[in-house]
Amino acid sequence: MNPSTSLGPGEWARTIKPQNLGIANFLAFALLPLSGFATDIYLPSLPGMAADLQVSAVQVQFTITLFLISYGISQLFIGSFLDSYGRYSSGLVSLLVFTLSSILIAITNSIWMIYAMRVVQGITVGIVVAGKRAFFVDLYTGSKLKHYLGMFSIIWSTGPIIAPFVGGYLQTLYGWRANFWFLAVLGAALGIAEFFFSGETLPKRNSFQLKKVLGVYREILSHLPFVLGVTLLGLSYAMVMVCNMTAPFIIEHHLQFDAVTTGYCSLILGFAWMVGGFISKAVVHHGFFRKLFINIGLQALLIIAMMVAFRYVDNIYVLIAFAFGVHVGAGFTFNNYMTFSMTRFPQNAGVASGLTGGFTFLLVSAFSYGIISVLPAQDGNHLAISYGILSILVILVVALARRRTPVVH
Known about the structure:
- The chain is an all-alpha fold.
- It has helices at about 20-30, 35-40, 45-55, 55-85, 90-105, 110-140, 140-150, 150-175, 175-195, 210-220, 225-255, 260-280, 290-310, 315-340, 350-375, 380-405.
- α1 (about 20-30) packs antiparallel against α6, α11 (about 225-255) packs antiparallel against α12 and α11 (about 225-255) crosses α15.
- The radius of gyration is 21 Å and the shape is globular.
- The two termini are about 30 Å apart.
- Mean pLDDT is about 85; it is low at about 1-15.
């Protein structure tokens, strides 16, 4: 580790001062959940946004889909960009643009302006988060690097857990625009802290060689087990996103609760995702496909029970109890296949990481928006059917992956 390595004349002049390294590490971790905050903080406000802007539920839900698409696409190519132009300056500019876009969303009455700014936010957050993943690889090696990388999923999951909880109170007290003022203040504060305490960590600028990059992409995307693994990541997180996009309408319109209640429910379901990840870590040495089939089998049974239950009872407790179990299973599958996908190509870890994150979120946006377009946010039974569709796809893809990947270490 050498945070003060000279980058040479004409390169970036600002490197991290050794006395600021601890703060820079903290800031790097603080920026990882930014994607979760940008996606989830205004979930309790979706019904309020639709009413205030006089648009349909699907139109306001599309603001989330646009963020996910742009966030996913940006990660497909951002690794090469950051290796050529640096992490620090790219991150600072992105935080500035993110802050300005949040302000524009907060003051506009146009759904089209919101659409445009959500695309901008997806791209800028993709640059920031990808840069901070590379931050640790630049500075650390060996066991220390493994320690930091092992904390990524836990730190990242705090965003989807905390954000809607905060957003529920902001919606109740000040309305939906307060969520984006909050994001603007958060982006500005982190950007200022980055300016004073962080710095460039890339030791050498790499020239962008399109032919070489495309060759690596072709090699990775022709590897079927990797493609199936990323598909499972998308299907697993789509279960969570379908719930995130429909639950506010079910809870606030159908069940007649307020936005604060939606925030508490999102907090509980975010914790379920984290529980699934911890269980996955606890059984890491068990047979890969055996534990996956047990998990998705239990998840499928739970979804069937949810469909049956909503024929006889329809309340928030049943909704959250069943959704909690489904999200634990989704978190379990996601954590297993994230590790699987990220370790397939150690010689091209950066590109594999970008492709994994990029295609995952593109698939999440496609699956989630496609399902809610067909099954609108009406009641718990519609949510159960949505889960069921995704569960069937998960089972089919895992079965195919098992045939194509006979041994997983």
